[in-house]
Fold these 2 entries.
Entry 1:
Amino acid sequence: MLEHLKALVAAETARTGERRTIHLNDDTLRDGQQCLWATRMRTEDMLPIAERLDRAGFLSMQTIALVQFDASVLFLNQDPFERIRLLRERITRTPMRGAVRSNLMRGFFPVADDITELFVERQIANGIRDIAVFDALLCSDNLASSIRTARRLGANVTLGLGYNIAPGYDDALYASKAREGVERFGVQTVALGDAAGILTIDRVRTIVPALKQAIGDKRLEFNTHCLTGLGPLLAIEAAVHGADTILTAVDPLANGNSLPASQMIARNLREIGFDVVVDDRLLDEVGEYLGALAGRERQPIGVPAEYEPSHYITQYAGGAMSNLESQLKLAGIADKLPAVLEEIGRVRMELGSPIMVTPYPAIVAAQAVMNVLNSERYKVVPDEVKKYVCGYFGALPLPVDSNVKDRVLANGSKDIALTPPVIAPVLPELRQRYKDLGDDELLLRYMYGDEKINALAHTAAGDNFSVHHPIVDLVAGLAKRQSKARMQISGDGFSLSAN
Amino acid sequence: MSEPALRYTDVSLTDGQSARWAGAMTTPMMLAVATRLAATRPAAIEIVSPVTLQQCVARGENPWQRIELLRERCPGIVLRAAVALLTEHGKRGTDVISTEVATLWLRELAQRGVSEIVLIDPMVAIERIAPVLKEAKALGLTTIIALPLTQESTRSDDDLRAQAAALARMGAGRLMLRDEAGLLTTDRLTTLLPALRAGLGATPLDLHLRCQTALGPMVALEAARIGIDGLDTAFAPLANGASVPALGTLLKSLRMLSSETSISAQILHAVGEADRLLAELADRHGFGPAQAWVFDLAPYAHQLPGEVAAQFMQRLAALRLAHKLHSFANECARVRSDIGAPPMLAPFARPIAEQALLHLQGRPRYAEIRPGVRRALQQVYGTTSGAVDARLAQRLGALPKTLAPSVASLRAAYPEASDAALVLGQTCGVAPEAVPTPASPEILRYVATTPADALLAGLTARAARYAQLGVQGPGVAIQLQGTEA
C-alpha cells in the first residue's frame, strides 16, 4: 500500500512539476471536543494553547458552531461570543471558522432569515473570518441568506456537503451540489463531511475526484471521523485523490469518535511525498497540554476504534439510537425495537433518504413507530412528517415515494397547510423588546431566554493557566531562574527549599 | 447441522498474550481461563508457540506440564502447537532445528494430546519442511504449513501461488497464509486469495493476520466473505493492535452482514464470558487494556511482526522517539535490505529492529552489529533471497559450518535429561538440566493477586540483594529491610 501511494503521488509530482502541499485545518476546539468531551471544554482552557495553535500552520481553525453555542450557554454558563473574541485576540494569523447549521437554530425548525443573518454577522463581527454552511437536505436555498451575509461582510464561505449512504446519493449528485455552490454562490471551499465516519476507501477514490473536477480551482476539504478506525486511511486516500485540505484534531483529542490526528496525518502525508506545513513540535506541545487537561477534567482522550461494519448499516448516530430505545421503553414497547429499526430503513428511503442528522432521525423514527403500531402504514402521520413532506424544512434532495406522499397528505393533520407559510421576520419585535441591548446579547436572549443569559459568567482570561499541580509549576518556575541563591518557601502544610 | 460460518482457532494463549500482555500470562492464569475458552467451541486452541515456550522456561515454568494440564481442561477440543524450524537464541549448531530434533519435538507434543501443528519455516525451504512434514504425518498430526505473506513488490501473487502449489504437492494438510505484520489490504486480498486457491487445489487455506495497521478486522471479514477455510482469532482483551482480530466482533459482524444463523446466541454469550474473564484478569494484574492501534503507513515500511512491533512501538514511546516512527520504519527496511532481505519473522525481525533503533539513536551505522544481524549476515539460517551488503559480509567473515547435534549425541551428553528436556534445550537454547521441573498443584492454583501484592512478594523473595528498600506510589508505600544472604 505504502509503495502504491508513493507511486501515485510521484506520478502527480512528475506530471505537474511540483510537490503538492496538503493543508490541515484544525478542528480540535470545535469538533474534537464535541466528539469526545460532549462539547464541555471551557473557554479559559482553550486560551493557553490558542497562540501555539495559531503558529502551528493550519490553513484555518474551526472554533465554533451551534452545538458550541448551546453547550457554552446551557452547561458552562459562558458567553460564546466572548469565546470568539478571546480566541481572536490570540489567534491573529490563522482565519477562524464558524459554522452555521442551515436556517435551523435551536429547536431544529427553520427560522426567519433576518435572525440567521444576524447570527452570521455577529460571528464575523467578533472575529470569525470563514463561515461554513451546511444543510442536511443539501437544499441550497436554505443557505442563501447566510452565504449572502458572509460574503457581504468579506468572510470566506465553505460549503459543507454531508455524506450519506442511500440510493441516489451518487457521485453525480454531490458533484452537482458542489458545482452549484461554486457557480451560484461563489464559495471558496467545498467540504465533504462524513459525520458518521461511514465513507469507504473505494468511495473516496471516486467521490473525491468527482468533487474536485466539479469545483475546478476552488479548495476541496475532506472531513471524516474515526468510528470504524479507517478515518486516517480515508484522509490519506482523499489527499492522494485530490483533496486540498484535511480536517484534523490534535492528538489526543483525535481518533475514537473524533477526527484523524493532525500529527499522524502530517507525518504520513509527508512520507508519501506531499508537503505539509504544520509545525509538529508545537502540535505535540498542544497535545501534551490537552492530555493533561483531559486528566484534570476527567474527560476521555481519543481511543482508536476497532473496525466494525455495523456503522455503515445503521447510520443512526449513537445518541439518536439511545433516545429511541428509551422512548420505546417508556411507551412499554421496547420489544418492538428490531421491527422499528427495520421500518426506519424503509421509511427513510420512502421519504427520500435524508442524511441522518438532527432533526431527521427523530422525524423518520416517529413515522416508523406509528407504522409498526398501526395495522396500516402511514395511517397515522406525525405533524413533523407532513411538514417535512410539504417542504417546510426545504426542498428535498430526492423525491418522496409518490404513494407515500399521497397517504401522508391525506392522513396528516389538516391544520398543516400544503404550502409552507412565509416565515415572518423576528428582529423588529426583538429590537423593540431589548431596546438597550447590543446585538450579541439580543441574539443570545432570543436563542436561550433571559434566565440563562442573566446567569452567564465572565471568563477569567489568564494565559498562565496550567494543567499541572501548582507545586510542579512553582518548582519549574524556580528552576528557570538564573540566580543561584538559596530559596526557602513555606506555606500551610508545605515547605520547600532549593539550592 | 450446517457448516459453521467460520472455522476459527483461538490464539489468545500464544500470539494474543505475547503481543498484548508482553507474554505475562502464567500457567496458573491459563489454567484458570481454559474452560471458558473451550466453551466457545473453536476449531482448535493454540496452546504453545516457539515464543511462549521461551517465555514459559524463562519464567521457571515447565511448558510440557502446561500442555498436559491444558489438555485436561479442554476435553474434546483440538489443541494446536506452532513449531518453527529456525531458532532465535543464537546457540551455535541449533540455529536451524534438525529434522531429527523436530521429530522429537512433534512426538512430545503428540504424546501430550496436541493433534494439530503449524509448521513455520520463515524461508519456506522445501528441503527443510518436507522431511518434518513426513514425520508429522507419520505421528498422525494434522499439519498446517505456514506461508508468510510478503508485500507485492517483494513477491507477487504469482510467486506466492507457486510456493503454495509446491507446499500442497508436498502433502501439506492445510496451508496458512501468515500476515504477521498486518499488511494485507482488501485490495490485495481480492487478487491474492484466488491466486492461492488456484495453486492449492483442494488443500484448505487458513489465514493468520495481525492488526498493526488497524485493517485486520476488515480484511478478516472480507476473507470470510470471499471464502477462507480457517481464521486465527483471539478474545477481545488479547486481540487487535499487534495481535489477531477479536472473535466476538467478527462473529457479530458476520451475523449482521450475512444474516448468518449458524452463529448461535449461545456461542456469542460464551465469547462474551471469555472476554469478560480475560478483561478482569488484565485489570487485576495491570496488563494493558484492549485497544486497537491507529492506522499508520509505517508498518508497511518496517514490517515488524506481532510482539516485536508491540515492543518497539513501546520502546520508541519510552525513548520519546514516537515522532520519528517513519524514520525508524525506513531504517528497518534499509537494514533488512543490507542483510539480504530475509523474511520479517523470527529470528530476523527483532535484530533488524534493534539495529535500526541503534542507528535512529544516532550511533554510526553498523558501528555495533547486533548478534542476530551478524548471524543473518553470515547466512547461518540459509541463503537469503536478496544480496547481502558485501562490505558488511567481508567485515564479519564466514563462519565454519557447525553440524546440528544428533539426538543420540544429545542423549549421551545429558544422560539424566528426558527427551522433552532435550527438545527445550535445543529450541530455547538452555541447558537441558536447567529446564524447570513440573510444579506442585498448590503452585499451579491461580490466586488473584494485585500488582502491589506481586511486587511485595517479588521484593521479599529478593531480600538478600538489598539492605533497605522503599517503594512509593499512588496508594502504595512499601518499606523493606534486607536480610543477610
Entry 2:
Amino acid sequence: MAVSSATGIRRWILRAASIAVCLLAWQTAATYHINLGLVTFANVPPPTDVAAAAIEFAQSSKAFSHLSSSLRRVSIGFALASVLGIALGLAIGRSRRAGDVLLPPLELLRPIPAVAWIPLAVLMFPSSEASMIYITFIGALFPILLNTVHGVENVDPRLVASAKSLGGTRSAILREVVLPSATPAIVTGLAIGMGTSWFCLVTAEMISGQFGIGYYTWESYVIQRYPDIIVGMVLIGLLGMGSTVILRRVGTALTPWHTVEESRR
Amino acid sequence: MSGQERIAFSDTGRIELENVAIRLGSGDKAFEAVSDVTLSIAPGEFVCLLGPSGCGKSTLLGALAGHLPVARGQLTVDGKPVDGPHPERGIVFQHHTLFPWKSVLENVAFGPKMRGIGRKARRQKAEEILGLVGLQDFTNRYPKQLSGGMQQRVEIARVLVNRPRLLLMDEPFGALDALTRINMQELLLDIWSRVRTTIVFVTHDIDEALFLADRVLVMSTRPGRIIEEIKVPFRRPRDAAVTVAQEFAQLKRRCLELLHTRHDSFPMHRLEPLGLDLGNG
C-alpha cells in the first residue's frame, strides 16, 4: 500500500506521458490524413483544431445554456432513477414475492437500448424535456437497481439473525442492517448509473431542443463543424467522469468503516 | 475498571426441557439432530454442553435462542415456551456478528435502540457495560479495528446490555489463541460474578467446560443426547490454578472416556447452528 512519493511522481509522469503520446498520434494522423483502409483520419480534425473550437465554445454565449440544460436533465433523470432503483432493489432483494412480481417485466425492459426508447418516449411524454429526462432516467435505472438487489441479497444472514435476536423488527433490520450492508454495492450502482446516464444524454438530446451538450454534438455533425463534435464528446466524458468521482467520494464518506485500518495485533 | 458495582438481575432464567427433539433440514434430508433431551437449569447457573463436533449441542443452543423450532417435547424459559428469538435470550457465536458499519458503542447500544431508548440513555448503558468488559477506551473503534478477543468482548457486552435471562454461548472462544482464550474465560467468570444470569456454554474443549461450569452436560454424537451430568465442585472465584488440581484431572479423565467411547467411526458434518433459511425473506 505504502508507495514512496518518488515512485508516486514517476507513476503520474508515466500516466501523463501516455496521454501525451495518444494526443501526438492523433495530431499526426489527422494532420497527414492517414488512411488505414479500415479507418480513415481524412475528416478527423486534429487536437489543435479541437482546442481552438473548445476555446471558442467556452467564450460563446450559449456555452452556459448548453451545460446547464444537460446537467439539469442528467441530474433529474439520475435522481429519479436512484430513488426508484434503490426502492425497487430493496423490495426485490428482501422479499421473494416482490422479486417474482417485479423482476420479470424489468428484465424484459433491461436489454432495450436507450436509443430504441426515443420514438416511444416522444409519444409518451407531453414535453420533449420530459422525454429527454426519461431517456437519461432509463439509462441509469438498471445499473442502480441490479446493484442494489445484489447488495441486499449478499447481506450476511448471520447479521440479520443477530439483529433479530437483539430485538430488531423487520423495518429496523432493513434500516440498520440491510441498508448499510448494501451501501457499498448501491454506491457502485450509482457510480455506474451516473456514467450510463451521461452516456444516454446524446441519445436523449437528439430528440429535439436548442440546448444541451448532446444536442450541440449532434448539431455539429449535422452542420459539419467537425472539431465541435469532439469538443462535445470531451465535455460529456469530463462531466461523466467528474460526477462519477464526486459520487465515489460521497460513497467513501458514507462508508467510513470500509477505509479504516484493520487492527494489527 | 469502572462498573465495579454489581448489576443484579432478578431471579429469572430457569430453563426446562422435556423430551425435546429438534429436526434439521427439510424434505428427504431432514434428520433428528437432537433427541429426547430432558433437563432443568436453575436461574443463575453456569452449564456447559460438552460434546464432539456435530453432536447437536449448537443445535440445542439454537433452539434455546429461538432460532430453531422444537420438533417434539417442551422447551420453556421461566415457564414460557420459547417461540422465536428474543433479546432476553442473548447468543454469542464463535465468529462475531458485530455490525461492521457501527462503532463499538453503537453496536452495544443496538439492543436498547431497538427497545426505543433515547440516544443519550442508551449510550450511557452501552458505556457502562463496555466498562464491565474492559473496553471503555475503545468505544469509537470499528469492530475490524479490534483484536479477536476484543471483538468477542464487544459481542458479550452487546448481549448483556439487554439484561438477558439467558446468556447462550456457542464456542465463543473457539477461534482465539490459547492465551487470549484463558484470559477470556477468566473475564467471563468475573463478569458472571457481577452480572448474574443463566449461562449455557457450548464447547468441545474439556478444560474449558470444567474450568467454567457449575455443571457439565456431556452429549453423544448424532442424534444428540445427554449421556452424563458432571457436577463441578471447585470453589469460586476460580483461577487457572484449578486446572492443575488432581480432582480436575480425574474429572477430565472421565470426560475423555465418555467422549471416546461414543466416538463414531465416520466424521460428522458441522451443523448450521442458526438453522438459517439462506433464501430470501
